[in-house]
User: What shape does this take?
Amino acid sequence: MDSTRSAELFRQIVLPHLRDALALARWLAGNQSDAEDIVQESCVRALKSVDGYAGGSARAWLLAIVRNTAFTWLARHRSASLVMVGDLGDIDDVSRDADTAAEPQPTPESELIRRADQRALATAIATLSLPLREVVVLRDISGFSYKEIAAVLNLPIGTVMSRLSRGRHQVATEIRRADA
Assistant: This one.
């Protein structure tokens, strides 16, 4: 395939999903700088293999590349025990629709409560093992379907559902424990 055709496919398949790619990379890497490096490397990999894209969910295809790249990148650049989680507010900022002008402005009190809730949730998600955290983030933060998560993680849908259930239960337990 010529480079012009590859570039056009890349624009059609990859570019619309860069926000989701960055959000997933940020959750896996724990910070913006590393996430940007991971997404950049993922884009290079996607461009090299775009001619092999067989259709289906472009979002799932790209995020599978981001996930695999993140694990490779983290193994190369960090200790295996160091994986942090970003702030949920970052994910909200990235995924929020541009049409928020009609929303009422939050009061300082409601904003303080929202941020405290986000920190508690982010802390609870950070306590999950990586397999559970991946599924919870992809489903509850990024809004993926079970089928898309199964494709990204290369797992049976039943495993995705089981991990999501266990992850949600552990998050709820951790939040209740923290509130006590």
About this structure: Residues 80-92, 94-102 have pLDDT under 50 and may be disordered.
